[in-house]
Amino acid sequence: MVNSRTGTYDSLEELARQVISLTGEDPNREGLKETPKRVAKTYKELLSGYEMDPSHEITMFDSNGFNELVSVTEIDFYSLCEHHMLPFFGKVHIGYVPDKKILGLSKFSRIVDIYSRRLQTQENLTKQIFDLLENKLSPKGLIVSIEARHLCVRMRGVKEKGSSTKTTIKNGILLKRRDFADQFFIDSHLKVIS
Ligand code: ZN
């Protein structure tokens, strides 16, 4: 199978074989023989978001005058940090007050999934989700909040085992109406997975 952007499947497999060799391991020993193939397949899956356009996932409906807060919370995501290519993962919470349009509920997790399956920073992931929803829905107010654990922080260096990172962007009526913002934080109860 050939990936036009990242080169061939085979070259990823070969690269994984080289990494194994460079550690001093024998890539031909029983337990490792099939590993390069599995690694190539895994990375292809984890980075499959480049082959998809999240704006194609936007299916909108008329809001029929609904202009209260809609919260879609605790959307699981798994991504790879662009600095270390190690996983970071957690929950995405999205809240918006529609103007004329609402988004099909299943689409939120689809959008999160596509952006997550790329090399990312948490900040950029937050902004990409926010910008897409802002551009397509033009809601009265929007908030996107992500809480995540970064394995590059937990496994390496200072090993900050307990820390989590939270990023939030909001605009419009969510900056002015405290009751909407409060409701969002109650809905998302911003718990961090451990
Ligand atoms: Zn990192």
TrEMBL record:
Query: Which terms under GO biological process does the entry name?
Result: one-carbon metabolic process; tetrahydrobiopterin biosynthetic process; tetrahydrofolate biosynthetic process
Catalytic activity field: GTP + H2O = 7,8-dihydroneopterin 3'-triphosphate + formate + H(+)
Record's InterPro entries?
GTP-CH-I_C/QueF, GTP-CH-I_N, GTP_CycHdrlase_I, GTP_CycHdrlase_I_CS, GTP_CycHdrlase_I_dom
PROSITE patterns in UniProt: GTP_CYCLOHYDROL_1_2
Q: In which pathway does it act?
A: Cofactor biosynthesis; 7,8-dihydroneopterin triphosphate biosynthesis; 7,8-dihydroneopterin triphosphate from GTP: step 1/1
Q: Which GO terms describe its cellular component?
A: cytoplasm
A GO MF term:
GTP binding
**Which EC number(s) does UniProt give?**
3.5.4.16
Q: How does it assemble?
A: Homopolymer.
Name of this protein: GTP cyclohydrolase 1
